[in-house]
Design brief:
83 residues, 4 helices, two-stranded antiparallel ribbon, alpha+beta, 2 strands, Helicase, Ruva Protein, domain 3, elongated
């Protein structure tokens, strides 16, 4: 079964996955939208896209100045806890 660019766009809007990954999913499933969503889910792409919009608000920041040369560095590490 052939699919159109509109099909790729629709799948992208449903899953928030990139255009090329949507196209590959539709090619692999012969244009079946439901199977394409399952294919993306198996590959983990749909789940990763959902997490991309989340805010990682937990974490810490650390600052250090080298006493010998005076070079400073600041590192911030954020994380998300999902139960």
């Amino acid at each position: 079964m052939a699919f159109t660019a509109q099909d790729v766009k629709t799948l992208r809007e449903m899953t928030n996955v990139g255009m090329m990954d949507c196209k590959k999913a539709l090619q692999a499933t012969d244009g079946d939208m439901d199977k394409a969503v399952d294919w993306l889910r198996e590959k983990g792409l749909a789940k990763a896209a959902k997490k991309a919009g989340r805010v990682a608000a937990e974490g810490m920041a650390y600052a250090r100045v080298c006493p010998e040369c005076g070079v400073a560095a600041i590192v911030e590490v954020n994380c998300e806890t999902d139960f």
